[in-house]
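FAQ
Q: What does a multi-component entry look like?
A: The components come first, one per line:
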Amino acid sequence: MQKSLNIDPEKCTGCLQCELACSYDNEGVFNPSKSRIKVFKFEDAGRFVPYTCTQCDEAWCMQACPVDAISLDTTTGAKVVSDTLCVGCKVCTIACPFGTVNYNSSTGKVIKCDLCEGEPACATACPTAAITYVDANWTGLDKMRAWAEKTDAGTQVSA
Amino acid sequence: MAWARNLLRVDLSKGTSTNEPLNMEWAQKYLGQRGLATKYFVEEVDPKVDPLSPKNKLIMTTGPLTGTSASTAGRYSVVTKGALTGAIACSNSGGFFGNELKNAGYDMIIFEGKAEKPVYLMVENDSVQILDAAEFWGASVWDTEEGIKTKHGDPLIRVASIGVSGEQGVKFACIVNDMDRAAGRSGVGTVMGSKNLKAVAVRGTLGVAVDDSKSFMAAAAAGKEVLAGNAVTGEGLPAFGTQVLMNVINETGALPTHNHRDVQFEGANNISAEAMAEPRESDGKPNLVTNQACFGCTIACGRVSTIDRNHFSVKDRPEYHKASGGLEYEAAWALGAATGVDDLDALTFANFICNEQGIDPISFGATVGAAMEMYEDGVISTKDTGGIELNFGNAEALCSLAELTGKGEGFGAEIGLGSKLLCEKHGKPELSMSVKGQEFPAYDSRGIQGMGLTYATSNRGACHLRSYTVASEVLGIPEKTDPLETDGKAGLVKAFQDATAAFDSAGLCIFTSFAWTLDDVAPQLDAACEGEWSTDKLLEVGERIWNLERQFNMAAGFTGKDDNLPARLVKDAAKTGPAEGKTNGLGKMLPEYYEVRGWTGDGVPSNETLDRLSL
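Then the predicted structure of the entire assembly, as tokens:
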């Protein structure tokens, strides 16, 4: 079963444990500036929104790469950057419509979410389940269940 | 590792900055943040220095765990000689600034001297610039923070700045970072303003490493599990915030009301966590928008709220229709019960202004409470207040005084003196509810006896964050003691003081201690840092820090006579509630405390104690 990262901003508190976990897993140090996932705070609305690569099927980054440094991990569905092949041309950062591929000036390569080989550190670290790793075909399951319950409650009232 | 092993020294008079290796011998004795910065401060600054003189220094400091994934490990502190107190000051703040400073490669920044004109410091890893702040001088914290990000074209910069209050010398100005987190108490922002330093802006991308990653990840995960499973840190604080205490403390009969004339507030429920969650009539939305976390915090006690757009304070002022930080319990108490105001929107507005202009809501609200008492007693009149009718419970007065004090204007400049100077000025020193010049926080020591000793002996003036015996006396953490009893409180206060100093020096939030003891902290430090870090060593470090702070205060001119409480708390009995008829038993607790501390009968650390602690 392929899985996807599922993000529920409603549950996010903005603690950045996901950014810490991501940078630690990929860089060996705690460094939010090198995280593949980023939490945005919308100050005036009091909202926190984690955002990262959603692993497009027809990935613009993969198609744009001139040296075929981005490949599909067929098990996880992740689009993975090969550090040995990447030449740091940044074309993928232009091609990605969502901004989730970024250049790392310390290494001269680009970085993006690779789903940690099927065990995403961000989802494990999230203390409020705002980031979960769920069945790719049923990312809506929790929302559906919640609405089903609400709908059912309405049915019972009217019955 | 864990420490960056590097400090930045900024001489504002000369306009220079230099790097220095961190004194790692001291780090083994004082850990970091509160402890280590105090050691640097004590070594470098004359205890008699005028807090507002260029010879005072101001240190922004992180702990070894700051920037790691340990829960709550994003803290930083400001150490200086306090403008409000003249005592050693150490104010701790959350948010994201501390983490950024550590990521830029610094354990601390030591500011010396005074800039000729207003400046701000811009730090991007090893690039350090002292820049002209003319365009930000006179601006609020909120405008300064946004202005710096815009000017440098970088929304990821983190900023700690002062508002107009700090420029104008309001004695309890604080340093605000990330819009609504503050190094709040003792006037650390006033000291910053006296140095013509408007803001410190940091962008750090170097990362924070730990000594033994594998052990650290396991220890940090175990710590998080303890926090998640605890009723206070896992349920109460995320759901209700610190405001969960409002009704609890009121029922305990320890909610200081009307400048401590009363110990229970009839409007308490209107300004409580429960009230914040209640949908309001006008738009059906509650005051509370969401909870929020500081960096790395898995508790997330912070509140984000909005003001009713029809409320008098913000009508036709759309800039205050947004969501922002607060109310937290201490602010809600000081702005509310201390002043007798039970209008939740007025409190939220006053709290927004405290954040926007960088004033400590505890000292502000408490000083307004003292002024209200003088007004009702006829000591001051509308002639003094600039026409403001300063009766207890006047929400309009509270809101306009917040704005005036935030800018140091009109009667706000008088409030900005703090309650001690204000009450002395009007010949009523006994009405200042303070110790060492710093106003009490939200617990009346007649109803919670241990807090009287906590306040009297706190090295930074009255404060709940130096030994929160409320945990034991009211909440039963780690074990229940009787809040009305004085027996055993001397030992309890010492134990809390020493442990708290260790938490504050690690880079962690003291709120973890609702669930953690030092037994939970030691393995995280031991894995992250060089050297052996056991619970026993941390307790010794905590006790050493406490005595070092005490030595500084003694050299600054404080004596055992300053370990005191206002007469009201030791002579006037509580009128209602479980503590009815009680005064605080400081006279009994204090000698016992000196004894368990290993101090003389005059409160001076004995030579044996100093030797034992290698001081």
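Q: Is there any commentary attached?
A: Sometimes. For this entry: Chain A has a mean pLDDT of 95.
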